[in-house]
Design a protein that fits this description.
A: 322 residues; ABC transporter involved in vitamin B12 uptake, BtuC; two-stranded antiparallel ribbon; disordered N terminus; B: alpha/beta; Rossmann fold; 2 domains; 12 helices
């Protein structure tokens, strides 16, 4: 039963990836270099949505909680990067690691101090606590860094790379590369390591997993830490393109959530397909239609997809992180 | 002996007292009524929340103003006291704050608020309670139509738009432009007005696109604009969007002139845009480049003195918002000299303000004009090598 379901999921993955590719090819054929420009921009934004969406999925599949503070992890990543790289002048890789570690610890701390204590409460209660946490993080960030946006230098210059009439900033390649790496690492972690497999077991059936000695508590802690790290990394690599500010987390979280739903909450490939699709849709609608309808059209398509596939493009009933 | 002297003394004292009293009451015929303790002026400013970068400098310059005017003996010997409330950039809280200032503190007039939304929320309270409101916000709607009780210190959005159109027509000599604006109230309002006024300057708007305040990337909108015959791009929004647009234009190799709004008249834009900010032109108050004000004029002197005092007290450079706050204090206290402790008369006297030299410009109000400044108080500023310079206009 599970096998046939997995097969249909695999078909769906290839189907939606093929559909996305087809849309891109059509855009390229019709619009030429302009279309290429849109796709490059769309994939950059989409990669970030994908990383944020993966954060949602990791926590959801381990704990059934939608973490509405996920966007704030990205915001904090960007702001900490500003402090360490731009203000303190640390080398980019070091500042990157320190920022990600701090945000991960924050995620882990929140899991221990709040989520863990609420393990006997309903999932809705925990979700509402995450909303409170996001408001708290925003207020603290504003108190520390002020309300003005800050600039973070691009990792390898700002001279655009020209390719077939499109211009892509070097930071975009960092975004693509990092997203690919994160997806690969997540795949290996959940499919090749004992801890990762244990977490999948907890996601599939917490009671059965506990019986065979997998700790649900550890699983939840790891999920929060990984999600916070993913969010922080996304916030850091996009910061040179979009600027960092205390209030960028909300919209990023919302778009990442939409991407996660679109791809199927709880699915890593789904998060990537959902993120890239949403990013490209947004850019293309801004380019083809009056740009004011950009967000409206992108979300309209989201609603239509969900009407057709309520589980999301790659979701499944069990929502096991794969 | 003692008794006798006293009897002679009493009428003298009484007479002296009578003379003194009559002098006070009828002395010069226009003697103003003074309060017992001090002139209380309220302030509702956005010193926290998203509009804090506006409200904080406004509050700082009002504190400086209070210190300076009281050091000089106040107004005819009566000290001035500003009572400032924070509206947290929230229109609802601004309305509560002005009510409190009027009813509990019995202020003579209220300064504020920093943003258009909060100012509009306060206006109905000001007119109901018959207390003058002098705002530091630029939204056109505040003074159109004129509200008897509401006056304004900063240059308006309309003046900035007129200045931009004059620059496009007279200096750049372009006839086709594109507009890219923030989808918020400031961006949309500005774009609407630009579009409706452009034909009057022989300018056609060939493209109009928008972006969301937190958008990352505007290349999609820019590639569309690139395909139109637009000879210049007008960007109407506040940081950080316009800085992203400058970077995206550089990325796409677009070379048409970039004209911004007064929403980017802060050093933050240069910091965010980096090299891409070079060449950007925007309208702003002359105080940002004091050398654009004739040397030796009263205005130049006021700007230089204010700038030096502000720097000395706070260790910061002045910005346009600091100027708005200072001018609001100046306009009210100037009218107080003539009106005294009477809120109704104070309003009438503010309306009669004529050629009062402030920091933002020279103020003249009338029953039909509560804006005070005019377009010639603005200049176009061009960013050259990361610094502001006056854009030569012909």
């Amino acid at each position: 039963m599970l096998d046939t379901y997995d097969k249909s999921r695999k078909k769906m993955l290839f189907g939606s990836a093929a559909l996305l590719t087809l849309v891109l090819v059509v855009i390229l054929a019709v619009k030429g270099s302009t279309g290429l420009q849109w796709i490059a921009s769309g994939l950059t934004v989409g990669s970030i949505y994908a990383l944020v969406a993966m954060g949602f999925s990791v926590i959801y599949s381990s704990t059934r909680v939608i973490n509405f503070a996920q966007g704030e992890f990205s915001m904090l990543g960007g702001m900490l990067m500003y402090t360490f790289a731009s203000s303190a002048g640390l080398p980019v890789p070091l500042a990157f690691i320190i920022s990600v570690v701090i945000v991960s610890l924050l995620g882990a701390g929140f899991e221990r101090l709040a989520v863990r204590r609420l393990r006997d409460s309903s999932v809705i209660t925990v979700i509402i606590v995450t909303i409170g946490f996001s408001i708290f993080l925003r207020a603290v960030a504003k108190w520390i860094w002020g309300s003005e946006p800050v600039k973070i230098a691009a990792f390898s210059g700002e001279k655009p790379v020209r390719f077939l009439g499109a211009a892509v900033v070097p930071q975009s390649f960092w975004v693509f590369g990092f997203t690919a790496l994160a997806v690969l690492l997540a795949f290996l972690f959940f499919n090749r390591t004992l801890i990762g497999k244990g977490m999948r077991a907890v996601a599939a059936n917490p009671d059965a997993a506990s019986l065979v000695g997998v700790s649900t508590s550890t699983s939840s802690l790891i999920a929060w830490t990984v999600a916070a790290a993913l969010g922080a990394a996304a916030g850091i690599i996009i910061a040179p393109i979009r600027f960092a500010a205390y209030n960028v987390g909300t919209m990023l979280g919302l778009k990442g959530f939409a991407a996660a739903i679109l791809g199927g909450l709880g699915s890593a490939p789904g998060a990537v397909v959902g993120g890239l699709t949403l990013g490209v849709l947004e850019t293309i609608t801004a380019g083809v239609f009056p740009s004011g309808y950009k967000d409206a059209l992108a979300f309209l398509i989201l609603i239509l997809v969900l009407l057709a596939w309520p589980q999301g493009l790659l979701g499944r009933r069990q929502d096991v992180m794969t | 002996m003692l008794l006798r002297r006293f009897r002679v003394g009493t009428p003298v004292v009484l007479l002296a007292l009578f003379v003194a009293l009559s002098l006070t009451a009828f002395g010069c015929g226009t003697q103003v009524q003074k309060p017992k303790d001090f002139y209380k002026i309220g302030g509702v400013l956005s010193t926290s929340g998203p509009a804090a970068p506006l409200g904080q400098p406004e509050q700082r310059s009002l504190m400086l103003f209070e210190e300076q005017i009281n050091a000089k003996g106040g107004i005819d010997g009566v000290k001035v006291k500003f009572i400032i409330e924070d509206d947290e950039s929230d229109p609802a809280k601004a309305a509560v704050a002005i009510n409190k200032l009027i009813k509990q503190e019995n202020v003579l007039a209220v300064i504020g608020s920093s943003s258009t939304g909060a100012t509009l929320a306060m206006a109905p309270v000001a007119s109901k309670e018959k207390i003058t409101q002098v705002c530091c916000a630029a939204g056109t709607k505040i003074t159109q139509p004129v509200n008897e009780w509401v006056f304004r210190t900063p240059p308006t959005d309309s003046m900035a738009i007129t200045k931009v159109l004059q620059y496009l027509k007279n200096t750049l000599k372009v006839t086709e432009i594109a507009i890219l604006h923030d989808s918020n109230a400031f961006g949309t309002g500005g774009a609407d007005e630009l579009q409706s006024k452009a034909p009057g300057y022989g300018i056609q708007v060939v493209a109009r696109e928008q972006y969301g305040s937190t958008d990352t990337d505007m290349t999609a909108q820019l590639t569309k604009i690139k395909q139109t015959p637009a000879q210049a791009l007008v960007v109407w929004g506040t940081n950080p969007g316009p800085a992203s647009i400058a970077k995206n234009m550089q990325q796409l190799g677009m070379t048409i002139p970039y004209i911004g709004s007064h929403g980017i008249a802060s050093k933050k834009f240069i910091e965010l845009g980096g090299p891409a900010a070079n060449g950007v032109v925007f309208p702003a108050g002359r105080l940002l480049i004091p050398s654009s004000i004739p040397a030796g004029s009263e205005w130049r002197k006021a700007v230089d003195e204010f700038s030096a005092a502000y720097k000395k007290k706070y260790g910061m450079d002045i910005d346009t918002y600091a100027a708005h706050g200072w001018d609001a204090g100046l306009i009210i206290t100037d009218a107080l000299k003539r009106a005294g402790n009477d809120p109704i008369k104070l309003r009438d006297e503010i309306e009669k303000t004529s050629k009062l030299v402030g920091i933002d410009g020279i103020y003249t109000y009338s029953p039909t004009n509560h804006d005070g400044l005019n377009v010639s108080d603005l200049i176009m500023i061009k960013i050259v090598n990361g610094a502001w310079t006056e854009a030569k206009s012909s």
